[in-house]
Each structure stands twice: as structure tokens, then as C-alpha cells.
Amino acid sequence: MKPIAIFRHAAPEGPGYLAEFLDEQHIPWQLIAIDAGDAVPSGINAFSGLVFMGGPMSVNDELPWIAQELALIREAVAKDIPVLGHCLGGQLISKALGGTVSRNPVKEIGWGEAMVADNNTARAWFGEVRHFNAFHWHGETFSLPQNATLLLSSAYCANQAWAIGKHLALQCHVEMTAAMIVSWCEVGAEEILVAKNSPAVQSAAEMQRQIPGELPHLREVAAQLYSCWINGLRG
């Protein structure tokens, strides 16, 4: 099988649990570290799928690699190569396919309940899961591209996930590990402080306190989603 290309846009926001999952499934993957100066591939023929991770930037920023990734996403979808996005990655896929990315009514940081939509597509992706506590860290949100089906919502963000066929865009983070949460709390300490009055922002201490109770279930949800996604991969 050709490797999956995983695009990292910020050093702390790597593939996390997704890398563990792919290794367990013996699926090869290649990290493309945009934050470290790696070039965006000129085409998708060397890959069986594309995954886009998060980052502190906006898809509306004028960064040279953003336009290149948007073009790569459109090429992948046109050639039926599965794409998967987490947070910024989900926003990139949304924008590439005609959606818009704009400021969310409130910033979401920390653990928060996400509700699975009542439709057949959502049931196909999430199985028996009807709701779960996702991990959030975003100030913007995406609209749904044409032909997309809403999969997930939260009280503070209506569009938490959508799918078109084998392509999945997530606003929330299901890829988290305990070490990533601790790291993000350190790197994002000032952001947490500035946004502390948002009803959807937790303190660093509270986020980390909930790790033992919430992370195991989040990994189960992630495994469910990733299992569905890899079904669309080509050899």
C-alpha cells in the first residue's frame, strides 16, 4: 500500500493517536512537516490518503502552503483518494471544497460534549456512539461544502464534523494523547488566560484533571472514525 501523507502545521500538533492506530493496522504513513519546512507534494499519486492536522493559523491567512494544500485536497477528492482533517485540517478541506471558514461565536478550548447527528451517514461513521466528550481548541468554524452531510455538533459550535463519501472533516480533536494535552496547555497558556471568560474554555488544570476519565472513550471514538476512514484507502 502507498503511504498516507500526514500534514503537520505546528510542532505540538502532530498525528497523536492516529499514528498509533495506523501502526497497529500496519498501514504506512509519511509525515510532511510544514512547520519544519517540508514542501507540499506536487501531486497525490504517491499516496493512498491525505490527513491534515491542526495549527494555530487560519486557513484565511496568506501563507504559501495553504493554497498548495487546498489544490492537493481538490485533486485528491477528484481522484477519489480519501482525505481526513482535524480542526485546521477540517477547515482546509471545507475551504478547498467550497465552504467558508469564519469566526466561531465563542472560542472552544478543553473538553466538551459533542452530539452525533441523527442521520444514516453519521451512524455509518460513529456506529453506536450518540454523544461523547470531544477535545476542542479553536476560534473559527467551517460551513458545510455542497453535498456534505453534518455528522456532529456541540452547544457552542454547530458544525463539528461532516462527511462526503469517504472524506471526513472534523472541527474537534479526536487524535489527542495525554502528552499532547499537557503540551498544548503549556504552549497555549496565554490563549487560555485571554479567553477564560468564554463559557466553552476550561482551565489547564481542569483539562488535565479530566484526562483519565475522558481520554479512553475519546480514543474509542477516534478508533471508530479512523476504522471507517481507512476502509476507503486504495492500495
Describe this structure in words.
- The chain contains eight helices and nine strands.
- The N and C termini lie close together (4 Å).
- The longest helix has 20 residues, at 211-230.
- A nine-stranded mixed sheet has the order 2-1-3-4-9-8-7-5-6, with helices on both faces.
- By secondary structure, it is of the alpha/beta class.
- Helix 2 crosses helix 3 (88-96).
- The protein has one domain: Class I glutamine amidotransferase (GATase) domain (Rossmann fold).
- The model has no long low-confidence stretch (mean pLDDT 97).
- The chain has helices at 17-24, 64-78, 88-96, 120-126, 178-187, 189-194, 204-209, 211-230, and strands at residues 4-8, 29-33, 49-52, 83-86, 101-116, 131-142, 149-154, 157-164, 167-170.
- 34% of the residues lie in helices and 27% in strands.
Task: Please give a quick description of this structure.
Helix content is 34%, strand content 27%. With 235 residues, the chain is α/β, with parallel strands linked by helices.
Q: Percent helix among the residues?
A: 25-40%
Strand content: 25-35%
Total separate domains: 1
Strand order of the largest sheet: 2-1-3-4-9-8-7-5-6
> What is the string of helix and strand elements?
EHEEHEHEHEEEEHHHH
Globally, the shape reads globular
Q: Architecture in CATH?
A: 3-Layer(aba) Sandwich
Q: What is the arithmetic mean of pLDDT?
A: 97
| Radius of gyration over all CA atoms, rounded | 16 Å
Fill in the CATH topology. Rossmann fold
Number of strands: 9
Q: Name the poorly predicted regions.
A: none
- Structural class category: alpha/beta
The tally of helices reads 8
Main sheet attributes: strand count, strand direction, barrel closure: 9 strands, mixed
CATH class: Alpha Beta
**What do we call the CATH homologous superfamily?**
Class I glutamine amidotransferase (GATase) domain
Give the termini distance in whole angstroms: 4 Å
